[in-house]
Amino acid sequence: MHRAAPDASIERVIATPAALALIAQLEARHGPVLFHQSGGCCDGSSPMCYPQDDFLTGPDDVCLGAIGGVRFFMSASQFEYWRHTQIIIDVVAGMGGMFSLENGTGQRFLTRSRVFSDEEAARLNPDQPAG
């Protein structure tokens, strides 16, 4: 089967306008931030927002792209599970993750997703998640 050329316009992670507004609010208060998709444990599988200088990504973390100029990471093992889906970061009312910066704002980040169409999947670079 012939694969189409990779298409940078197909984003692995995107955000709703509400999420982008909360990201801007958090950056105004805390400076540069980053996201790491939690794999479970204390805060379930929430997207966690941290000050950029306070969270060290590891060699097994994968950058899926950026939302609102903020890089979004998850572990390589999680990426294997999510590689066929587009991650959509949204905001809902509630309490944020205990260690996530939105905690105390009355809002929390929420991960939604959709499976890439066959056409989109054929245009994704299978070996490299994002820039």
Relevant terms:
3-stranded mixed beta sheet, 3 helices, 4-stranded mixed beta sheet, 131 residues, 21% helix, single chain, alpha/beta
Describe the structure.
- With about 130 residues, the protein is of the alpha/beta class.
- Helix content is about 20%, strand content about 35%.
- It has helices at about 15-30, 75-80, 120-125; strands spanning about 15, 35, 45-50, 60-65, 70-75, 85-95, 105-115.
- Strand 4 (about 60-65) and strand 5 (about 70-75) form a beta hairpin.
- The model is unreliable at about 1-5 (pLDDT under 50).
What is the compact description of this entry?
This protein is α/β, with parallel strands linked by helices and 131 residues long.
Which structural class matches the secondary elements?
A: alpha/beta
Count up the helices.
3
Distance between the amino and carboxyl termini: 25 Å
What is the percentage of strand-forming residues?
25-35%
Overall shape: it is globular
If you compute it from the alpha carbons, what radius of gyration comes out, rounded to the nearest whole angstrom? 15 Å
Uncertain segments are 1-5
Strand order of the largest sheet: 3-2-5-4
